[in-house]
Amino acid sequence: MNIVIKNVTALLPNGQDSHTVYIKGQDIAGIDKEPEGFKAELTIEGEGKLLIPGLINAHTHSYMSVMRNCADDLPFMDWLLKRIDPIEGRLTNEDAYWSSLLGQLEMIRSGITTFNDQQMHIHQTTRAVAESGMRAVICRGLVGNEYDKSDRRLLEALEEMEDVKLTDRLNFRLGPHAPYSCGPDYLKMCADVARDKGIGIHIHLSESVSEVEQIKEKYGCSPIEYAAKAGVFDVSTIAAHCVQVDEKDIELLSEAGVSVVTCPASNMKLGNGFAPIPELVEKKVNVCLGTDGAASNNAQNMFREMGLLALIHKGTHKTPTCIGAKEVFDMATINGAKALGLSDIIGSIEIGKKADLVLLDLNSPSLMPNNNLLSALCYSANGSEVETVIIDGEVVMENREIKTIDEEKVYHEINDMLDRLGVISKLC
Fold it and tell me: In the 3-class helix/strand/coil scheme, how is 239-275 assigned residue by residue?
């Protein structure tokens, strides 16, 4: 579809101003200058709107959306082993499909156009992505100890890569879960396979004190060193969390070109602490932003994460200048695109890039007055301002109405599975 967005305040890489943006098919074809032979099929009046690049959720588990608010106020390992793992064991493939759709509904509504998903049910998230219209990088969660290329989970991950035929909005990585669930030989195998397939790795690293203590006791090094020694950093790596890291760890991450995804709400909620983001940025580590899954966050809202990220480190470092709104917004957009290897097609509003765009209503109370819109996105917005979402040139939400997903059907299916899964918390 050819779309023109007229006279809209657009947040471009070089600043914000009033522009007219032309979308031809999947791509941004012109800014202010109408492409030759262009004929608009849809005209969007941009007066009173803000156009931003779609937000990129660089670490989540969309299939866990059904577990929202079911395992709160628990220590990390109790949360994982005593509450989440048993529910996950009862989750069917069909449950995972509907749960992923629920997560994608929430993400679209809050302006997320791309997500990096670590999941356990092959074909279900890819199936949901094909229907929702979102862009996604899918990483099959992997756990094991042996160097065994016939490992069932690995073969499932490779099988799922065939789902790319469903839509060109899908990309894939391998998802070895974490150092405490993947032995060194298994991690080496994952790195070797990723290299052979020309794909990257998405892994949880140094999320908690208990993880660091466990790995140091067993292997005599930090989880970051452990992953590096296993060859994980020899391929493109996205490391989620990196909360409990020291100077040596940061140097390793920087030297290896690892992208770090910070998940402020999840890290705080599970009592894991605060990632040293200013220190990582100082060492030129590419830092991006994610929500983590709804079981630990409990939201899939990047505006909430931007607000937390912009404020937390000012408090912990006792200075208001250690991280600013521009840095935070970049972490939620172009830095995420860089981490995913997609910065040539998404992450900013530029001619030739995919039309992954979000329109916000500037007449929302939270954005009034329109003094500094970049600051407003990080310090004032909450996601309710998102009005229209375009992904790959297709309108997936218009005037807050989702076009691609039957919301009522999703809610019905989610409510149907609650008792069977034992999701309703017994703690309150």
Answer: EEECCCCCHHHHHHHHHHCCEEEECHHHHHHCCCCCC
